[in-house]
Amino acid sequence: MLLIDLPLIEYGRAIVVQKTILERKVASGGPDVLLVLEHPPTVTLGIRGKRSDLLVPEERLREAGIGLFSVDRGGEATYHGPGQVICYPIVDLRSLGITVRAYVRRLEETIISALGVFDVTGFRQEGKIGVWTAPKDKIASIGIRISRRIAYHGFSVNVELQANPSEFIVSCGMPEARMVSLNDLVPRRIAREDAKAAIAKSFADEFRVELEPGSLEQVIS
C-alpha cells in the first residue's frame, strides 16, 4: 500500500485526486493508497448535512476564508483546517476481506491506538461514529464513501486546531459536541509530523498492511 504524504492541499483538489485514484483502481486495479495531508479552513457537508448545520451565513464563511463543499461522504457537517491530520485511504475492501461496518470500526481502532502512543485515551460512543476523549469531547471524525467496494474519503484527527468549529457549524449534527485537539490533552506539545507517523503506523498495524512511501505522480499521472 502506498503512503503519500502531501502538504497543505485545497479540499477540491483532494477530491479530484481521490476520484482519479478510485477511477483507475476500478478500471485497471493498482495499489491501495493512504493519503495523509492537511486542508486550509474548510467546511464540508456530507450526504446528511444540511444548510441549517451552518451557524453563520455562507458569505460570512467566505469572508473568513473558509471554503464550503457539499460532498458524497457519509455524515453531516465537518470542519477541516490547519492543525488537523487528515487521512484518505483509497482501499479495496475485497482485498482486505472486510465489511463496510468492520472497516469503519477498524478506522476508529486505528485512531484510538495512535492516541495511546501519546498516553491519551480515546473511545467510541454507541451510535456515534468517530473517536472521543470525554462524553462531549470529540477528537476525530470519520466519513467515508464506497464505490464498487472501494472506500474513499476517510478520517481526521485534531492535533492542534487553530479554529473553534462550534462558532460556525453544528459538528456532525451534534450541538453538544466540542472539538478538542491532541495538544489540549498532553503536557508537552506534539508535532504534527509525530502525530502523522503514529497514525500511519497504527493504520498499518490495524489493517495488517505494509506502507511504502509513494508520490502523487505514481497514482495520477
TrEMBL record:
Substrate binds at R73, G74, G75, E76, A77, T78, Y79, H80, S141, I142, G143, G154, F155, S156. It is found in: Cytoplasm. Its EC number is 2.3.1.181. One of its GO terms (cellular component) is cytoplasm. Residues 28-211 form the BPL/LPL catalytic domain. Keywords: Acyltransferase, Cytoplasm, Transferase. It catalyses: octanoyl-[ACP] + L-lysyl-[protein] = N(6)-octanoyl-L-lysyl-[protein] + holo-[ACP] + H(+). GO terms for molecular function: lipoyl(octanoyl) transferase activity. GO terms for biological process: protein lipoylation. SUPFAM superfamilies: Class II aaRS and biotin synthetases. Pathway: Protein modification; protein lipoylation via endogenous pathway; protein N(6)-(lipoyl)lysine from octanoyl-[acyl-carrier-protein]: step 1/2. The keyword Cytoplasm applies. Its main location: cytoplasm. The keyword Acyltransferase applies. Belongs to the LipB family. NCBIfam families: lipB (TIGR00214), PRK14345.1 (NF010925). Catalyzes the transfer of endogenously produced octanoic acid from octanoyl-acyl-carrier-protein onto the lipoyl domains of lipoate-dependent enzymes. Lipoyl-ACP can also act as a substrate although octanoyl-ACP is likely to be the physiological substrate. This is Octanoyltransferase. It comes from Desulfomonile tiedjei. The lineage of its organism: Bacteria, Pseudomonadati, Thermodesulfobacteriota, Desulfomonilia, Desulfomonilales.
